[in-house]
Amino acid sequence: MIPRDHPRYHSLVQREKLVRGYEQGIAVPEGLIAHGRGEAFDYLIGETTIPPARRAIRAAAAALLLASSPVISVNGNTASLCAEQLVSLAKTAGAKLEVNLFYRSSDRARRIARVLRRAGASEVLGVEPEAEIPDLSSQRRLVSRRGIYSADVVLLAVEDGDRTEALVEMGKRVIAIDLNPLSRTARRASITIVDEVTRALPLLTEEVRSLRGLDVAKLRKLASFDNSANLKAVLEHISRRLTELCPDF
Ligand code: ATP
């Protein structure tokens, strides 16, 4: 039992959820390590949604509303941490949900689909994938033809760079949620939200709600996004923060 007044309460709850996900065969040990990399960057960012992330969230919301076939890609970490938030975003944005795993097994894919359905999803793709992303050797190449394969916009979080690159190569607009502004995913995605996934998802859902109803021209303007410039703003934020935290260094 984690005391609510513990200064790292939220972070400890996240860890507990991931460990539970691991015990239930949803997350893999490698996913727990990947989470640690994210935590380190969150520490540097200040464990809060920073202005460049807000700008990326706005662009991502506009891109989702403009999409004709948006898909949210789900892995073991995101299913363990935020299944309800993923389902809520999918419903609000009219996006499909698809399980996509690096360490894939049919059993794990089915378990994740079950978690999403329990969280309210009516349909979960990717359990029996029948298509492949070209030029990708990992298990992540296995996708649903009605889902990621034919999507025009794919949202992914806590991902490695290979698949992001392959999806961009296929001509898709990729929205990534990734705490590491230096990762290949962050640099290769079309719109990178440098924020913790459970902080970013509700804000993104809210933004989709608030932009709905805007005309296409306005949405296009909001969705046009300079990802490199935004990542630079994140790095400047981290650098300023480090200087403020350690003025004597
Ligand atoms: P790349 O191949 O893109 O350079 P990587 O090798 O670091 O990335 P992984 O080891 O799969 O890829 O790590 C997943 C990424 O997800 C890391 O960049 C990590 O910072 C990020 N991450 C981990 N946990 C979270 C989280 N809770 N919210 C957002 N991002 C996270």
Oligomer: single chain
Might you state the CATH topology name?
Rossmann fold
What letter string, H or E per element, gives the SSE order? HHHEHEHEEEHEHEHHH
Report the CATH C-level class: Alpha Beta
Overall description:
- With 249 residues, the chain is an alpha/beta fold.
- The protein has one domain (51-240): Rossmann fold.
- Helix content is 54%, strand content 10%.
- The chain has ten helices and seven strands.
- It has helices at residues 9-23, 29-45, 51-66, 76-93, 106-118, 161-169, 184-188, 197-211, 216-223, 227-245, and strands at 70-74, 96-99, 131-132, 142-143, 153-157, 173-177, 191-193.
- The strands form two sheets. It has a five-stranded parallel beta sheet, sandwiched between helices. A two-stranded antiparallel sheet has the order 3-4.
- Strand 5, helix 6 and strand 6 (173-177) form a beta-alpha-beta unit.
- Helix 1 crosses helix 4 (76-93), helix 3 (51-66) packs across helix 9 (216-223) and helix 4 crosses helix 5 (106-118).
- It is globular.
- The relative contact order is 0.16.
- Residues 34-35, 37-38, 41, 157-161, 177-180, 183-185, 196-197 line the site of adenosine-5'-triphosphate.
